[in-house]
UniProtKB/TrEMBL annotation:
<dbReference type="InterPro" id="IPR000286">
    <property type="entry name" value="HDACs"/>
</dbReference>
<comment type="similarity">
    <text>Belongs to the histone deacetylase family.</text>
</comment>
<protein>
    <submittedName>
        <fullName>Acetoin utilization deacetylase AcuC</fullName>
    </submittedName>
</protein>
<dbReference type="InterPro" id="IPR023801">
    <property type="entry name" value="His_deacetylse_dom"/>
</dbReference>
<keyword id="KW-0378">Hydrolase</keyword>
<dbReference type="GO" id="GO:0004407">
    <property type="term" value="F:histone deacetylase activity"/>
</dbReference>
<dbReference type="InterPro" id="IPR044150">
    <property type="entry name" value="HDAC_classIV"/>
</dbReference>
<dbReference type="InterPro" id="IPR023696">
    <property type="entry name" value="Ureohydrolase_dom_sf"/>
</dbReference>
<feature type="domain" description="Histone deacetylase">
    <location>
        <begin position="18"/>
        <end position="280"/>
    </location>
</feature>
<dbReference type="InterPro" id="IPR037138">
    <property type="entry name" value="His_deacetylse_dom_sf"/>
</dbReference>
<dbReference type="GO" id="GO:0016787">
    <property type="term" value="F:hydrolase activity"/>
</dbReference>
<dbReference type="GO" id="GO:0040029">
    <property type="term" value="P:epigenetic regulation of gene expression"/>
</dbReference>
<dbReference type="Pfam" id="PF00850">
    <property type="entry name" value="Hist_deacetyl"/>
</dbReference>
Length: 300
């Protein structure tokens, strides 16, 4: 059974006019339920994660400032959100949802977090709408609990997973792979184990060919026994922040390539949704829902 982490706090309200579409986190499970792709028993509501899971990855002082809402104003601006207690709770529930999903995936092959993909959060900073790095926290948990020995993190969001790259820069057991817009945020990139910078306007065939050429060889070289996948839909041509030119069909094919590759290699995987900033919220929700639809076709 495919399990999906979702909590109402994921749709935490932000000041009116804020460009980050928080409402998508409520609309994605609603659409999947409405169309019959999932049923209520597929969803689970994560608890808050333990502090030990956070500080295994993030600097204890940074976490203390988040928890006590004392993070300096300039650092809050870097995150892009006005900090409040509910937002911090949201992040630690997302982190636990990704941990729980990783554990479910080892039983069922795949699991999802409706939110997550907070890959810009580094060891001692938040950035780009990300306070804590959910997949890094979950990867660390699997390694510390000896539930995995070698992990692959595949980041196909349009923005480089700079926080993830920085966190695992010296961790040989975690291989970080990021395909992202070369001239897009973050403008100061960190170094993943494999970065593939993409030119503005990269189209369907270019993107899919690069993915097909690289993902199997990474798995062969690194030999992971678990995989995290960040499936941002800000690669779409319609995305106002993305700068790439993928169709919705190619975005779905991207997910299919990742899922089929994992099935072929017997790799359990956890999936977090990542970004999506098209003007039309229906495009964002449908593209994210395609990721779930594709997985249910292949894993059910």
């Amino acid at each position: 059974m495919i399990k999906i982490a979702y909590h109402p706090i994921y749709a935490h309200p932000l000041p009116q006019g804020h460009r980050f579409p928080m409402v998508k986190y409520e609309l994605i499970p609603a659409q999947l339920l409405h169309e019959g792709t999932i049923e209520e028993h597929h969803l689970f509501a994560p608890e808050v994660t333990a502090e030990e899971n956070v500080i295994a990855i993030h600097d204890a002082n940074y976490w203390q400032q988040l928890k006590e809402l004392t993070l300096p104003y300039q650092e809050q601006r870097r995150i892009g959100f006005p900090l409040d207690a509910q937002l911090v709770e949201r992040e630690i529930r997302i982190a636990q949802g990704t941990i729980d999903g990783a554990i479910y995936a080892q039983q069922y092959g795949i699991a999802f977090n409706v939110a997550g993909g907070t890959h810009h959060a580094g060891s001692n900073w938040g950035e780009g709408f990300c306070l804590l790095n959910d997949q890094a926290i979950a990867a660390s948990y699997l390694l510390r609990k000896e539930l995995a020995k070698r992990i692959l993190i595949v980041d196909l969001d349009v923005h480089q997973g700079n926080g993830t790259a920085e966190i695992f820069e010296k961790e040989d057991r975690v291989f970080t792979f990021s395909m992202h817009g070369d001239k897009n945020f973050p403008f100061r990139k960190e170094r993943s184990d494999l970065d593939i910078p993409l030119a503005d306007g990269t189209n369907d065939d270019e993107f899919l060919n690069i993915l097909n050429e690289n993902l199997p060889s990474i798995i062969k070289r690194h030999r992971p026994d678990f995989m995290f996948y960040l499936s941002g839909v800000d690669v779409l041509e319609s995305d106002k922040l993305g700068k790439l030119s993928l169709s919705k069909s190619a975005c779905k094919q991207r997910d299919q390539i990742v899922f089929e590759t994992c099935i072929k290699h017997g790799l359990p995987m956890q999936v977090s949704m990542g970004g999506g900033y098209s003007e039309d919220i229906k495009i964002i929700v449908d593209a994210h829902c395609n990721t779930f639809r594709t997985a249910f076709d292949l894993f059910s």
